[in-house]
């Protein structure tokens, strides 16, 4: 589970900003808290702010840092101007990204500093944290020179030194990324690198659709109908060779997902994939409506229905410890559907430790029935720089006034500032 995230010198974030999933003093919705290693961790978060206020920059900071961890700086030209450009000096200043998360019963701090204009890594670190004893343990620190923790045997340390020497001239690569490619056995102390990398690869999903099996998806027609979409079911339709080639560009990603999954099938919006030997069979998923005896292609559905269909798999996650983050949540949904969808996620997540973080403009979601005070966050931009803060920082006494109305009246900031037009 995600515990904290820090960022600085990235897009509209200049000074260091911290987002936390640790529970505050709020008392409503106690079921939104899970206790892990003596820590009280939240399952939900919602971000509000004006257009261009910084919500997308925050989620982009997580997405870009995750991409660099998983794949390296494979798109250097895209990163070169992502530093905070309110000050030209920031071009040569490192951008900072740090995650605190829990995975497989252990807590970790992992982060790196990178000069984005040069795609040059100037710092990287990994530590474990024992919340009961409030004690950190170093695994490695890359700056100013490589330092290794004491958990490794002499043989393991020697092996790590070889890998470190190999990386000495590769300033655009992360040590964690390179270690994830090594053949490391599960009983080795070095396996910690594999575990940390696995959280970023499998458990942190940013603007990425969760996948589900055929049976769960095809039994969800009643749920879609209950959401008011008029979709009552699904049907598989065979594709000809020409239509199948439309999926060539995503087949590699699909194959990777199938290889990581115990199941040999998955459903993505509008398509069903099944692995048979070395081949992948593709069929189109179409929708059914009570009002018609025909089937419909996904692209024929309304934009709101299509968004609900894309998000549908998150309601069928059988596992736990997934962190799902979505920007512009509900942008095409009716406000009541957006509200209902989060309600359903929270209900399905009872007893599980999955997290849902969304950025939205739906003020109807700003309700203590749906979120706790410490789950509601604001991103406000002033003089070109964004600031992140929680509703928990305010002494909220509404005297019968609705929370969303208080926000729109400017009580918490993070609103558009309009100017006269002459």
Describe the 3D structure.
The chain has 422 residues and is α+β, with helices and mostly antiparallel strands. It folds into two domains: 1-208 and 319-422, P-loop containing nucleotide triphosphate hydrolases (Rossmann fold, 3-Layer(aba) Sandwich), CATH 3.40.50; 211-316, no CATH class. Helix content is 25%, strand content 28%. It has twelve helices and 20 strands. It has helices at residues 55-71, 76-79, 154-166, 175-179, 191-203, 214-218, 221-226, 241-244, 251-260, 303-311, 335-348, 403-408; strands at residues 2-8, 17-20, 33-36, 39-42, 44-48, 95-103, 106-115, 120-130, 135-141, 147-148, 204-206, 231-238, 265-268, 271-276, 279-289, 295-296, 323-326, 355-359, 376-382, 385-390. The strands form four sheets. The chain has a seven-stranded antiparallel β-sheet with strand order 2-1-6-7-8-9-10. A six-stranded mixed β-sheet has the order 11-17-18-5-19-20. The mean pLDDT is 91.
Features:
422 residues; Rossmann fold; 2 domains; six-stranded mixed β-sheet; 12 helices; 20 strands; 28% strand; globular
């Amino acid at each position: 589970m995600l515990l904290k995230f820090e960022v600085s010198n990235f897009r509209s974030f200049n000074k260091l900003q911290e987002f936390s999933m640790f529970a505050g003093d709020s008392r409503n919705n106690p079921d939104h808290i899970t206790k892990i290693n003596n820590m009280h961790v939240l399952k939900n978060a919602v971000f509000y702010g004006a257009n261009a206020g910084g919500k997308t920059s925050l989620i982009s900071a997580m997405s870009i840092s995750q991409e660099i961890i998983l794949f390296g700086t494979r798109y250097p030209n895209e990163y070169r101007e992502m530093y905070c450009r309110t000050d030209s000096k920031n071009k040569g200043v490192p951008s900072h990204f740090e995650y605190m998360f829990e995975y497989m019963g252990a807590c970790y701090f992992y982060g790196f500093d990178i000069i984005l204009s040069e795609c040059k890594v100037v710092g990287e670190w990994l530590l474990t944290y024992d919340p009961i004893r409030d004690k950190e343990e170093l695994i490695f620190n890359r700056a100013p020179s490589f330092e290794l923790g004491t958990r490794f045997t002499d043989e393991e340390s020697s092996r790590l030194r070889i890998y470190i020497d190999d990386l000495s001239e590769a300033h655009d690569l992360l040590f964690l990324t390179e270690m994830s490619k090594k053949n490391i056995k599960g009983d080795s102390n070095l396996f910690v690198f594999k575990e940390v990398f696995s959280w970023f690869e499998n458990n942190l999903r940013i603007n990425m659709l969760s996948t589900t099996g055929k049976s769960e998806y095809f039994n969800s027609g009643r749920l879609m109908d209950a959401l008011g979409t008029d979709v009552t079911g699904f049907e598989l339709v065979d594709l000809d060779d020409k239509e199948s080639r439309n999926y060539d560009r995503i087949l590699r990603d699909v194959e990777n997902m199938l290889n990581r999954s115990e199941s040999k099938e998955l459903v993505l919006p509008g398509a069903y994939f099944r692995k048979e030997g070395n081949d992948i069979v593709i069929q189109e998923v179409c929708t059914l409506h009570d009002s018609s005896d025909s089937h419909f292609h996904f692209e024929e559905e309304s934009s709101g229905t299509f968004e609900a269909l894309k998000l549908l798999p998150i309601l069928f996650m059988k596992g736990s410890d997934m962190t799902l983050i979505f920007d512009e949540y509900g942008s095409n949904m009716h406000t009541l559907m957006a509200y209902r969808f989060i309600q359903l996620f929270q209900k399905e997540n009872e007893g599980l430790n999955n997290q849902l973080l969304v950025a939205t403009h739906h003020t109807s979601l700003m309700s203590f029935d749906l979120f706790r005070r410490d789950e509601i966050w604001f991103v406000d931009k002033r003089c070109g720089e964004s600031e992140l803060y929680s509703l928990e920082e305010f002494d909220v006494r509404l005297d019968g006034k609705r929370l969303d109305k208080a926000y729109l009246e400017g009580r918490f900031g993070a609103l558009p500032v309009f100017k006269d037009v002459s």
